[in-house]
Each structure stands twice: as C-alpha cells, then as structure tokens.
Amino acid sequence: MTNTKVCSSCGRELPLDQFHRSREGIQARRAKCKECRLAHVAHLRKINPEPHRRASLKHYYRFKDKVLRHIGGEHPQCAVCPFDMPELLEIDHINNDGKEDRRKVGAVSKIYYVILKMSEEEARKRYQLLCVLHHKAKTKGINVDNLMIVRRAS
Ligand SMILES: [Zn+2]
Ligand SMILES: [Zn+2]
User: Per DSSP, which regions of the chain are E strands?
Assistant: First the structure.
C-alpha cells in the first residue's frame, strides 16, 4: 500500500493525509484531495445552499437551546402560557428594542451570541421567551392576556 494517492480532480499525487478518510474509497480515502473537496463543497453550497442549511439546523437548535436556558432557566417556557417546545419558543425584547438591536447586531443568530455573552441577570432583564403565538400577538399589538390558552398549573 502506497502512502500517496492521485487526486481524481486535480491529478496531483499527494500524501494520503491530504485526502479525507472514507470507508468506501480506495485506500479508505476519498477520490478528491482535501483542497479539491473543499472547493467542491463550497461550490455545491453556492449553487444549492439547502443541504448545508439542513445539516446546520441541528447545530442551530442546540445553540438556540443554550440561549433559551440562559434566559428561561432550566425549563424554558413562554412567559405568558405554559408552552415549552423549544422549536416554537422565540426570544422577545422586553422593551421592544428588537429593531434597534438587529440594526446594531445584524443577523438573529448573532443576537444569540450577544445574549450568551451577557450575564443571565442582564439577559433576563432585557429578554423574555414567548411562544410563536404570544410573540406574534405582542408584535401585532394584541393584548396577550386575552390570548391565555391554558393557565399555568399551580
Ligand atoms: Zn485535488
Ligand atoms: Zn405563549
């Protein structure tokens, strides 16, 4: 077994460690060298960003979970109702300074980083968790108290 392999894309003969491992590949390595593969993946993402987005969704939810607990404690739930599905909980700016925040910080995911950098006390002073329904109601100016679906037990 040789320690080199010829890349199927650029044709260079390179040391094996320049190829990602692959169970099915010849010499248990991918056909394209790391450099070509990275270029290929970047190209695929450019023409079709969907699969990449789906793969990072899991990562995103884990990250979001962390932010939810930073604001909502051990058991994050809507500030108005007992709703607690993390996928449908949203972060609400208590003082309605969301627009200004977004202008300052940019993308929503960046706000997550900003929140995680704050102390929990500070984060809880500025943000609260709302379910999609109550969040929407608040941004539309509908009185959320009238939308109480289920009363919190105890
Ligand atoms: Zn190559
Ligand atoms: Zn709610």
Answer: 4-6, 13-15, 89-93, 127-131
Residue type, 107: A
From the CA of 32, the nearest ligand is 1
> What Cα–Cα distance (Å) separates residue 89 from each residue in 22, 58, 64?
39, 16, 10
Ligand having the closest approach to the CA of 37:
1
> What is the full per-residue pLDDT of the chain (154 aa) written as tens digits?
578 999 999 999 999 999 999 888 888 999 999 999 999 888 887 877 676 666 677 777 888 999 999 999 999 999 989 999 998 999 998 887 666 666 666 566 678 888 999 999 999 999 999 999 999 988 888 876 665 554 455 4
For residue 81, report the distance from its CA to the centre of ligand 2, in Å. Answer: 4
**Helix 34-47, helix 50-72: angle, nearest 10:** 80
Instruction: Show me where the domains of the chain are located.
Output: 4-47, 49-140
d(CA 8, CA 84): 50
Q: pTM of the entire structure?
A: 0.56
Helix (H, G, I), strand (E, B) or coil at 130: strand
